Structures are given as C-alpha cells and as structure tokens.
Amino acid sequence: MGELFSLLYRSKCILPALSSAELAMLEVARTRNQFEYITGILHRESGAYFQWLEGPRSGVEAVYASIQADSRHTNVECLSSEPATHRRFSDWSMAYSNFDDESLFDWAAATGMSLLLPNPQEILGFLEHRASLLA
Fold this sequence. Notes:
Largest sheet: 5 strands, mixed
Order of helices and strands: EHEEHEEHH
CATH topology: Alpha-Beta Plaits
C-alpha cells in the first residue's frame, strides 16, 4: 500500500456551510478517500477549511492535487506534509466538524496558538480533540 504519509492544509471555502453542495462534496470525498485508503478530518470555520489527510503517500498526494484544482477551494495552503508513523484518524474516511461544534479560533485563543503562523501540531491537537468527540 505504500509509505504512510500525512498532510495538513487550510483553504478558503466557497460553498455555504452544510449546504446540499457541501454535503455532496463530503460524500464524494469520503467515497474517494475509502478507495485511496485515506483517513482524516475536515474542520470548517469562518470561511476556512482545515483538513488533515493520512494514508499512502501516492493517495494523499493525489487527493491534495484534486483539492488544489477544485474550484470549491481557493487559497489552498499546505501547512505540513511528512511521513507518518501511524494513523491518527483510522476510524474516519473523513470526519467533519464546524464552528457550531467547537471553535478552532477559541481553542487558539485559549492556548495562545497563532492562526496567522500556525503550528501544525497545535492544529492537529485540536482536530484529534474534535474527532474524539465525534466517535
């Protein structure tokens, strides 16, 4: 299956939150992720997506390339990409959370985390926290 790899990105989202178009995008992404053996989580807040992808390097890179080309995202920025020792979201082809569930910005303020110069490990901590509450 290949080397385990992880990638964290943020982007500006175009679709309205929880619209039928966004829900359809999530369903297609979950199906594609299962096919590519990708797991992860997508968090939406204040017009931004933060997504962690993990799986075989070739699959993660293919999914990320499709996100970069997707008109439903703009300003796609990779925050971290590196080999991984284990999956952090093995139960999720793609978990989803948004501001209504819990705020990444509030988490950042409470922990002193900068979102202008984000630390990927701090964002990962928030995403792992969110996924644990979704289980």
